[in-house]
Write a structure and sequence with these properties.
It is built from seven helices and 16 strands. It is α+β, with helices and mostly antiparallel strands. The strands form two sheets. Strands 8, 9, 10, 11, 12, 13, 14, 15 and 16 form a nine-stranded mixed beta sheet that branches. A hairpin with a 3-residue loop joins strand 14 and strand 15. Helix 6 packs across helix 7.
Length: about 300
């Protein structure tokens, strides 16, 4: 069993300094806790290198901008802190969590003068799903909660408040014996799982929902690029649940899940497709090449 995340050894980069893991705390009345004025990223470490670090940092800045605040540290500072933290934590393969939030100077809906805090944590982390399960395929259940219209929430960001319905949906699915939930959008079209994008293999082509009200994942973008390099047709389109009844396969993509096969969605069974295996191989090769290319750059700090 994993140790609780509030009681681990090591260090966390917190507002520009490294502090002991158990000392990296915030006040009970922080605005980010009560009003969800908080943004974060999830980054994967392979062989000591953060995959797509620049893209993740750009998205963190974008999320903060949309929520109406600026990060108090520039990209170079965040990258240097990340590299130093990975070394201090002695992480070869793991996970990095940058997070920024409004502090406790004002406890009300309006808190524009509150200090913006920023921290980065990193830890050793195995696969999100069991490696054998990732190939065999996980089981999804349709969620009752839906992804909101982009005019009602900052859906292009990785903001903490957007994940409340994800937790509710995943908990409900797990109670029913499933591994995760598949969320529809406000119009009833397929959107994503609770923390990953989804693809379907239909007639030897990839079909994936348009990310118009949910996050256009960095791994999602990478897989689309790899598929096109392999001459696999990719269609980004609106998909109703009935549109996937003839799909041969389905899989999730994301920093945490990487590429994970889906075996079932609420009773709809997928037989699988060689395309999934080809993309997993291509993705693994791409990650290895990226790490080789960026190793000196990231570890020089």
């Amino acid at each position: 069993m994993l140790s609780p995340f509030d009681n681990r050894q090591g260090f966390i980069w917190y507002n520009g300094s490294f502090v002991a893991w158990t000392d990296a705390t915030l006040h009970l009345l922080s605005h980010g806790l009560h009003y969800a004025s908080c943004v974060f990223e999830g980054e994967r470490v392979y062989d000591g290198v953060v995959f797509k670090l620049h893209e993740h940092t750009q998205r963190l800045h974008h999320s903060a901008d949309v929520l109406g605040f600026s990060l108090p540290y520039d990209t170079e500072t965040l990258h240097r802190a990340t590299a130093q933290l990975i070394k201090k934590q002695k992480i070869t393969n793991g996970y990095v969590r940058p997070v920024a939030w409004r502090g406790s100077e004002m406890m009300a809906i309006s808190a524009q003068q509150n200090r913006i805090h920023c921290a980065i944590a990193a830890w050793v982390w195995p696969s999100y799903f069991d490696p054998n399960l990732r190939k065999k395929g996980i089981r999804l259940q349709y969620a009752t909660w839906r992804r909101p219209h982009p005019s009602t929430a900052p859906t292009s960001t990785k903001a903490a408040g957007l994940y409340m319905i994800c937790t509710l949906s995943k908990h409900h699915a797990e109670k029913n014996g499933y591994d995760d939930a598949l969320m529809l959008d406000h119009q009833g079209y397929i959107a994503e799982s609770t923390g990953a994008n989804i693809f379907f293999v239909i007639d030897d082509a990839l079909h994936t929902p348009e990310p118009d009200c949910f996050l256009d994942g960095i791994t999602r973008q990478c897989v689309i690029q790899l598929a096109r390099q392999l001459n696999i047709p990719v269609l980004e389109r609106k998909l109703k649940p009935e549109d996937i009844k003839n799909a041969q396969a389905a899989f999730l993509t994301g920093t945490a899940v990487e590429i994970t096969a889906v075996a079932e969605i609420d009773g709809l069974i997928f037989k699988g497709s060689p395309l999934t295996d080809r993309l997993i191989e291509a993705f693994n090769a791409h990650v290895a090449a990226y790490c080789t290319q960026h190793k000196n750059e990231q570890t020089a700090s």
